[in-house]
Amino acid sequence: MLKPTPKPSEYDRTKKETRASHGEPSDLAHVLKDAGYVDSLGHHTADSADETVIKVTKVVDADGVARWRVALPSTQEWLSRLNGDQGAVNDLDSNLALMLTPSLRSQYEGAVLAAMQQAGVGPNDPVMLVGFSQGGIMAGHLAVYNSDDNWDAVVVAGAPIDSMPIPSTTTVVSVQHRGDPVPRLDSMPRAAQDELDQYFIGSDNAYGYENTYYSWQED
Fold it and tell me: Are strands 66-72 and 52-61 parallel, antiparallel or unpaired?
């Protein structure tokens, strides 16, 4: 938390990473695949996470309204205490900081906000945050402690966010079981699904979308 905020830059996926993509999620039931996919990016060696990578998706409806979906990675480096930091900020130290000192801004949080600004997210643009494990904790954390942005929805799995004072204006979907989250998301009330479907290309009103990946390393 005492280190400077890393400077995000656009991330060019390797051919292997591009081939591993699940494609663009078309509805709420499959959005967590985005979080799983960004977990697989930035690993230039088998045993370390060299970079933190997030995915920022802009979805524009037929009326020209822009909505943003930000997929956040989970903990990808668990051994930083043993073999030194490997580059990714979504590591064990960041995980501990989020849980023990939630009101203080970590490198992970600062870089996410900087990447969103680079992508063109405006302060009034509605944003959906998606993540599981540490990515889900970060999603809840952003919704609580950064009131300058319009956090319209938080969608997480396996993240202890129940005690977070997330504003009532933010729709929260939290999957808290060990199995496949898709059936749980499919069983949500239709009205809630319809509201959040505006963030996906499967919406009848979707006009177009654009994906940008951003990455950074710990200084």
Answer: antiparallel
